[in-house]
Amino acid sequence: MYIKRNIGWGLILRYAWKNLIIFTVYASIIFCLYYYLGWDFIDIPFQPLSVIGIAVAFYIGFKNSQSYDRFWEGRKIWGGIVNYSRTWTIQLLSFIDTGDQSKNKEIQQRLVYRHPGWINALRVQLRQPKSWALKENYAVETLFNKHNERNISCNETVGFVSVSEYEDLEKRVNPATHLIKNQALDITALKKEGLLDGFQEDQLQSVLEEFYNLQGMCERIKNTPFPRQYGYFSKVFTWIFVLLLPFGLLDVFENDALNLTNELKEWYAFLMIPFSVLISWIFVTMEVIGDNSEDPFEGRINDVPMTALCRTIEIDLRDMLDEKDLPKNIQPKNNILY
Amino acid sequence: MYIKRNIGWGLILRYAWKNLIIFTVYASIIFCLYYYLGWDFIDIPFQPLSVIGIAVAFYIGFKNSQSYDRFWEGRKIWGGIVNYSRTWTIQLLSFIDTGDQSKNKEIQQRLVYRHPGWINALRVQLRQPKSWALKENYAVETLFNKHNERNISCNETVGFVSVSEYEDLEKRVNPATHLIKNQALDITALKKEGLLDGFQEDQLQSVLEEFYNLQGMCERIKNTPFPRQYGYFSKVFTWIFVLLLPFGLLDVFENDALNLTNELKEWYAFLMIPFSVLISWIFVTMEVIGDNSEDPFEGRINDVPMTALCRTIEIDLRDMLDEKDLPKNIQPKNNILY
Amino acid sequence: MYIKRNIGWGLILRYAWKNLIIFTVYASIIFCLYYYLGWDFIDIPFQPLSVIGIAVAFYIGFKNSQSYDRFWEGRKIWGGIVNYSRTWTIQLLSFIDTGDQSKNKEIQQRLVYRHPGWINALRVQLRQPKSWALKENYAVETLFNKHNERNISCNETVGFVSVSEYEDLEKRVNPATHLIKNQALDITALKKEGLLDGFQEDQLQSVLEEFYNLQGMCERIKNTPFPRQYGYFSKVFTWIFVLLLPFGLLDVFENDALNLTNELKEWYAFLMIPFSVLISWIFVTMEVIGDNSEDPFEGRINDVPMTALCRTIEIDLRDMLDEKDLPKNIQPKNNILY
Amino acid sequence: MYIKRNIGWGLILRYAWKNLIIFTVYASIIFCLYYYLGWDFIDIPFQPLSVIGIAVAFYIGFKNSQSYDRFWEGRKIWGGIVNYSRTWTIQLLSFIDTGDQSKNKEIQQRLVYRHPGWINALRVQLRQPKSWALKENYAVETLFNKHNERNISCNETVGFVSVSEYEDLEKRVNPATHLIKNQALDITALKKEGLLDGFQEDQLQSVLEEFYNLQGMCERIKNTPFPRQYGYFSKVFTWIFVLLLPFGLLDVFENDALNLTNELKEWYAFLMIPFSVLISWIFVTMEVIGDNSEDPFEGRINDVPMTALCRTIEIDLRDMLDEKDLPKNIQPKNNILY
Amino acid sequence: MYIKRNIGWGLILRYAWKNLIIFTVYASIIFCLYYYLGWDFIDIPFQPLSVIGIAVAFYIGFKNSQSYDRFWEGRKIWGGIVNYSRTWTIQLLSFIDTGDQSKNKEIQQRLVYRHPGWINALRVQLRQPKSWALKENYAVETLFNKHNERNISCNETVGFVSVSEYEDLEKRVNPATHLIKNQALDITALKKEGLLDGFQEDQLQSVLEEFYNLQGMCERIKNTPFPRQYGYFSKVFTWIFVLLLPFGLLDVFENDALNLTNELKEWYAFLMIPFSVLISWIFVTMEVIGDNSEDPFEGRINDVPMTALCRTIEIDLRDMLDEKDLPKNIQPKNNILY
């Protein structure tokens, strides 16, 4: 998640440089064909291009809107994880009462500590790349490779669960699912010991139900790409527009030059090159903006900062357990919070 | 569900070839009438076409947006099925305690196994074709016929329920509904045996209520076409625009040719043919993109991958029952997950 | 609900014929004034018309989107009725246990049968016409009059409730409300007899609460027109555009004719007539499409098929009661399901 | 709430007359400067006006969409009040059982009657004007002043609560809040008397929680204007467009007149006046349509008909209490239901 | 929150003056280059600018729509806080019954008073500035600095919680979270004393769960900027359009001047300056409108009036406790409610 109001030109160029070169070379070639070879037929009337441009802008608008929704839903789900982590903890802190202060502490700690185990395991599972993952140019990818963590195993639970539980998790297909299962078994065991009544078991099980819903919602977004027919044709249509654009601009600049009087007249159409690059960049950038929030769990520039959220939850929960040596918040790197 | 970022040109052509031929032949005929027969009146001013084009682009935008919502709602419902399948299982695993480990296992297995029976029965019921089903050209249909499964009976429950239950289901109008009913009867029977208390029966019945909601939501989308007046006129308006387009392009290219000086002038309007084909393809494709997510349970290129999800749930549930020989995940065919 | 993918031209013409005649006559008169009387000033520049056309297309887009939401909300509510009808039934089937099989049957049947009474009474209440109901031309209205049922009384409950209950319902302002009230009284009576415990009463009362929510949501849509300032001005603006259109098209065709060389030049503007009819039809149709889903409970071409849904629920419920002679599904008439 | 499909021209003119005069005078002045003083430079090219027009149409579309949502949310909330009023009543009717029929009646009546007291108090609180209230011209305001009721006190509760309770309410800041508080105190008192068990108290308290949610949602809409930066600039931009319009139309009509041949040529630009008035009216009306649903509780032409809904609820509840002399429904005045 | 219907020109200028000067100077320079230096090539055809303008207007529309949603969600959350504050209070008032009136009062007061402590602590936590906070020009910032409060500590809880509780809160990372935790501990303690039964504890804990949800939803909006790629490029594209605009307008005014006859012809293009300033202001204002509701908790002109809401809740709750000396409502300053 980028945390500054304005995006520096350095970062923008890191994304755009390749396209800017392509647009410039392409428009220059067309200008040369027109100007040096005298191919004055190499233009296209602009009117139909206007219609394509507006239709493409609509289409991109639709895509951006849905991509934003995917990001925002992802962020909402993690907000829900924050909220129910706190509810889970206060319910354990208030419900469990063995009469023995240190035994209370022990039970509460076991159940509260397993929770950051779950969120961290979930985080790592969501960070694994998918076959439809976005690939940017080399300059951008190195930026993320430098910062980003993509652990493979469920090692994230170490320190939060017992060794035997860890060994069991290692054999499971989806460790996060089994962490919640273990919470459920623990809760019912406490009830059988008489430490929880029916109402309290009911409330805690409801929170676990909520955790499964939140986990499943993350997995839904992660495992379902933004439907590729919507996403890919957005790119195709944008590039068709962008590739036709210099021909159309040549036409309008050419016509406009008819009114000019001085000797620059012949060179006037040359202005078409920077103008073409600019409009192309606007359209391609609009299109790419959506791409960057389609998949919100990848650890890229505008994704849900799951690592930071996991740490915040851990701090909150340990503060509630009245621990003293709380870990530090995750700090942004190059203005990006991961 | 298509699982690659980019859609190959082979696949695009498989969908588009027929239309591309139609557009080319149609535009060529109009060009010939104009050029060889000299019918220079066979054109239409482009300004009103711009207005139609923009209005049609809006209309398509609306349709795509609603179609996408239908797909995404379908996917959310199946996400909900995943989540509550897990909740159902952990509740059974933690609540049921006869004191006898193997008897627990037996009861838990009966109730957990009936669940994949339900999701698979539901899946097959949703895959049956409807009178408003989309039909593509032959090349596309063969692709899906090769991969897709459209079982007729509720045979999917074999192995998940007892033989007597299976025989009862065979006689029912809607087998999925009765599978949940059987779960409910089982749960209350367990309560009468004293294996569940009131709170636990309440929670399990709430999960069953949720299953009926999820099933009914699937059936709502399946049994209600995207209102045909919205969907069909989108196609009609697009084709009207596309059929008028070559006349309008002839007009703008003709006018543009007036400025040309060399001998190609007469042939300049010829450029209208590829340009016309291109714009036509863009508009028709935009329109068709929506069609492909209107009905999300058909087992087509971008539909909800129910077969894969059913398998995932089955694996999850059997892993929770600590089974060893878990089935494999469903693999995509030609980059499509069914 | 129209159940075919494509809408036949016969049906389209049934809706459109009157407007098509109006548009043709209107454009012809304007053409004659121009051509025969030589009123060459009777035209309007097209540029401002473009702006109106685009603004109107937006406005219609907004209206269609909201109208669609009203339909889809109506359909979702009835989907909810389907879901909770099943939940209601399985809860009764599993909870009620007098020890006497035939007494169980009797109680379950009374409470389950009253339910189709409620949905049918609700259906008929929703089908009564309102002061803002849509009126189409004669050809369309006869189609619906032929098929549609608009019973006046709560006779729909006959066969589902006892005679004395029926007589009580006859005197009530809103019979559907009282059917749910009777369910509630029955449930609490069963609890007092000890046939239901507190948890079970709680669950059944929650389902009744849900039924009141669903009924009230239907009544909200039924009793609140799509705000008429939004709906009516959409029509006004569309017709203003459509009435100005021939004047604007005359202008563009006239200008375009200046380039023509042959003797058809003078007649070229004649093309404005079919073109004007076509664009007018597109805009008016776009506008009318929304009208047809504004009020989703009227029993018109694209309304919620409540009659069919009521029958489906009845079949489902009676199948759960293990009845043998299940009624048949409602069949579509002229491809329309009511 | 306006209850006819079409809005009469009388009503439209009542809203529009002042603007129509302004537009006509303004366009005429510009025409006179052009025609009589020969200021042929007093025009503006239309192309940039097209862009402003389309941008403004978008902006208005956004505003209308959000305003509609505010109205529809308001209507949904009152729908919720209807639904839970019924649920409240059937729960009281079925739960309360003292063994003594007339004592039951008395308790039920006290709790059911306090409810219309609450909805009517809430209605009056919502009808009080705010500092950002819409003001129309004199002709429109007199229409509403004639019909509308804006009581000041909580006198609406007279007849629904006891005299002592009424006197207590008079001293409160927000009487509606205290009516629900009194219901809660009554419910818990009944439980202490043993007339309700824990489940039943729980359900009734949940309904009261729902009432507070519904009341608070009304107050949120009432106390928060549609953000004025969105609402006010919509008006500013529309009027800027409308004021520039005649200059732009002068330009296009002037250019169009160049092709005319007869003596009317000079007067052709005169057509700009009615055309300008028409487009101005369309844009200003589009903008005003949104204004009229921004604040849905004011008792204006398209607001939530709270008076009628309160009466409907009262009738429903008293019918459930088996009362005989039910009050009449509220009738619309001049086709407007308040 | 601005509370008048119309925004005064003084306030608008306070925001706009700097941009207006920039636009005027910029357009004047371009005009001078054209007019005095005779650079008649320094123009750009307007057609492609139209397409950019429309595309940018879409994009801004999307941004405004999402920004509005962020504001409205923020307002809804605080509406939820109002509602559940009341529910919390009536549950405590009706449930707690020690038999001793003054002991009841004491317990109720402790639990009800801690609640305004929580909302005020939450308010102050939400008012702390973030690294992506909006910065306006000096004239605007002084306005907010004059009125706005940005306390640093959790001093807001003084008077609402005991001294020892306050001292504990001072050491916490997130004091609001711990206030709810303390409520939970208190509730369970009351249950252990037998003052609450299981149902009542369940209900009160559910309200606390709701409070955590509401707090977490506020923190989600506060801690997640509107994705900067969407927000920042909106500004970039708008300014690109605005900077190209004078060149394009020069072109259209220049062409339009060809028809003029009198001596003003040469100066006609001068009109481009005010026109350019006007359109630039419209686009930049549209863009800035969204900026102002992106972050709804900052205490700026259109943010959620949390200070006023906190006071309203405090008054409501103390009125329910039958206190006499209720504090006054917060009054708006310069028509802005904070």
Give structural attributes.
Bestrophin family ion channel (chains A, B, C, D, E), ion transport (chains A, B, C, D, E), mainly alpha, homopentamer, chloride channel activity (chains A, B, C, D, E), transmembrane (chains A, B, C, D, E), transport (chains A, B, C, D, E), elongated, 338 residues
Beta fraction of chain A:
under 5%
Assembly type of the chains comes to: homopentamer
Radius of gyration of chain A: 28 Å
Number of strands of chain A: 0
Global shape of chain A: elongated
SS summary, helix count of chain A: 10
* Largest interface, Cβ cutoff 8 Å: A-E, 72 and 65 residues
Mean pLDDT of chain A: 90
Terminal-residue CA separation of chain A: 6 Å
Largest sheet of chain A: none
Query: Which percent bin holds the helix content of chain A?
Result: 55-70%
Q: How many structural domains in the coordinates of chain A? A: 1
Strand/helix succession of chain A: HHHHHHHHHH
User: Ranges of chain A with pLDDT <50 over ≥5 residues?
Assistant: none
